Model the fold of this input.
Amino acid sequence: MKNNKSFCCISFCLLCNPHNSNASEALEKYKNYLEDGTYMGQSWGSKLPKSRYYTFSRAFNIFKQNKGKVVVELGTSRSFVHGGLEGCNSSDTKYWRPFNPECWDWGAGFFTRMAAECLVPTGAIIHTVDIAISHIKRCQIICKDFGNKIIYHICSSLDFLKTCNFKDGIDLLYLDTGDIWPIEPTAQLQLAEVQLIVKRNLIAPNGIILLDDVANRTPAKFGDTSELGKSRYSIPYLLNNGFKIIENEYQVILKRKNHEN
Done:
């Protein structure tokens, strides 16, 4: 759930030593936080979708099996702490507690940090994109121990997608721009994003797209009946343009129809 408007794109690396954590163990230690962050504050019916822990695990495993190199995140991790807590969306570094993960912003998934811990040890380079300079600066603090393995882009997702150039394509694209409500502007933005992705053929042959918040219950509270939230237009578009769903939970994972995992 990120801010995203048109802006000139600026990219830079934060220089530091890369992290050396064991990729196979990195996500497991955050399992309870990821599950609690997925479900907190929402009312679920008879079907409880699997949490971000499950789909992160699946996506990261596919990435590693394919020997992927390029991760792109549209909408960076922007808060040191959970929504509703003192310090939420504050730039005051006193709220960042690197050794107290129970305080981290699990409600938003904390993808930048999770991808870094799990995939940087495999040789991945992570590109994280956000329109807000303050969000990028906070993310630099959150991920400062991963150094030049994370490249920060200050620009809109659309500007990035119009100009990025990856020789072999994007191996893992995490799509998390826009706010969960009002839903229509975010849904339209996400549609524009996937249209560019398809038009420019940006996903690697074995690459995957991971969409966040598809099963989030907030839109339904305000009358949305699509059951796809901010992906109400993007998922049908992708399904009609060469992609298929391989995981349909709180998050959705898609890949090209002519490739198997």
Q: What stands out?
A: The first strand starts at residue 10 and ends at 13. The first helix runs from residue 23 to 26. Strands lie at 10-13, 70-74, 125-130, 150-154, 170-175, 203-211, 243-248, 252-256. DSSP finds nine helices and eight strands in the chain.
